[in-house]
Specification:
This protein is α+β, with helices and mostly antiparallel strands. 43% of the residues lie in helices and 11% in strands. The protein is built from 14 helices and nine strands. The structure holds fe (ii) ion (2 copies). One fe (ii) ion binds next to helix 6.
Length: 427
């Protein structure tokens, strides 16, 4: 029988049948769970969930829970990888359980079907992004309809498959930050907005605002923009003016752009605690589309290679952004962003606990530490003739493969994009 209950009254042993929220807005991979730890109840409370539905028929007593834990601990054998094996382990009863091949294969196939279309849309949008920046430098008229057309194609691609365009950003490592930054922020923002359930119209506005968000930098002297060291106070004041200048460019040219897109450009550096700029907005005063742009902006800036420093690995950048939870960004928005981007985005090269090397093919948004991967090299670094697809989220508990560390793509010794069904990356 289902019973509504306050999260404060939950006890270990109760079966939560529904947390009553969309997946991106609660801490668990699924909406239902048998509560076996006090920490699970705290997680719900910390997420601001005040009520859930309990299934009394599936709930257990605390003695039954304790018994279940004891038998699980005794019955589970640890995974001991054997060098040189890729499949189920020899001489061990612990076998990395295969995902139902069709489920993972279907997800990957949907991604690979979208990738060429996403690459085409990205390539066109990149040309437009370059033209946009050139027009600003030369004080020429910006062709809004062209930008909107490209943004619409990006929104359509993300609507068909949330991850294909984001995967491209990771796979295209030969970046020119100046031209790709606005576009990448646009892609990350549209993808996050899609995961948050924004309407198509909001996604189009978000896409436009993000494409324009840093145009004001074309009015900041290049010695400040490209200065390798710390900016002086005066230089920082000039640098910070770029957000308001982005708005100024749009208004000067009387561009036919939605007011909310203009807000994205002006407010993308505003922060929750009022420490941002240019208007020191706080909390709810900051438009939510601008917050999505702000998160994507920080992430892209941290992960991109620049002239004077190498970009961070995605999981390090997310760790950094996580540190801004509650000060620069609303905690739940950070969580949603992390859930959308994925701790190991597609194209990441990872070492498995067995020593094998794998390429992340697809994020499992409900199980961020367990993406779908292709095992591509054995523990000695020998490339396997046939990579093996493994859905880390579909293994039975304690059964097998796990990611042990991330390898920078430049040190992988192979091109991760080779393992995607993609002939050419957009230039
Ligand atoms: Fe900016
Ligand atoms: Fe930016």
């Amino acid at each position: 029988m289902l019973k509504k209950m306050s999260t404060k009254d939950l006890k270990v042993g109760m079966f939560v049948a529904d947390v009553g929220r969309a997946w991106f807005n609660h801490p668990w991979a699924t909406k239902k769970r048998l509560l076996t730890e006090e920490s699970e109840i705290r997680e719900l409370i910390d997420y601001g969930i005040s009520e859930v539905f309990i299934d009394t028929d599936r709930s257990k007593t605390s003695a039954q829970i304790a018994e279940g834990k004891a038998s699980a601990a005794g019955g589970r054998k640890p995974f001991k990888p054997v060098a040189g094996t890729v499949g189920p382990l020899r001489g061990s009863s612990a076998r990395p359980s295969e995902p139902p091949a069709s489920a993972a294969a279907e997800i990957v196939s949907a991604l690979e079907t979208e990738l060429p279309k996403a690459a085409k849309a990205y390539g066109k949008a990149l040309d437009t992004s370059k033209a946009l920046i050139a027009a600003c430098y030369m004080n020429k008229r910006i062709e809004v309809s062209e930008v909107q057309e490209n943004v619409d194609e990006l929104v359509e691609s993300v609507s068909r498959n949330q991850d294909a365009l984001s995967a491209l950003i990771k796979l295209r490592r030969f970046d020119d930050y100046t031209y790709t930054h606005c576009l990448n922020v646009s892609v990350l923002s549209i993808s996050t907005g899609k995961a948050l359930g924004l309407s198509q119209e909001d996604l189009r506005i978000l896409g436009m605002g993000t494409m324009f968000h840093d145009l004001g930098k074309t009015r900041v002297p290049s010695y400040i923009l490209n200065k390798p060291g710390k900016l002086t106070d005066d230089e920082f004041v000039i640098m910070k003016s770029h957000a308001a200048l982005s708005e100024e460019i749009i208004r000067e040219q009387k561009l036919d752009v939605d007011e909310r897109a203009i807000q994205v450009a002006r407010f993308h550096h505003e922060r929750l605690d009022g420490s941002g700029y240019p208007d020191h907005l706080k909390g709810d005063e900051i438009p939510r589309l601008a917050t999505i742009c702000g998160l994507s902006d920080v992430y892209d800036a941290l992960t991109s290679d620049r002239v004077y420093h190498k970009g961070m690995l995605p999981h390090d950048a997310l760790k950094f952004i996580y540190g801004l939870r509650g000060t620069h960004f609303e905690p739940t928005w950070v969580d949603r962003f992390v859930q959308s981007v994925g701790i190991y985005p597609p194209g990441s090269v990872v070492a498995m606990n067995s020593g094998h090397i794998a390429v992340v093919i697809e994020v499992v948004h409900t199980s961020l530490l367990n993406p779908i991967v292709k095992i591509v090299a054995d523990p000695k670094g020998q490339i396997l003739p046939r990579p093996k697809l493994v859905d880390l989220s579909s293994q039975t508990e304690g059964a097998g493969w796990a990611i042990s560390k991330v390898i920078p793509p430049s040190e992988a010794g192979f091109e991760p994009s080779y393992y995607f069904n993609l002939k050419d990356l957009p230039k």
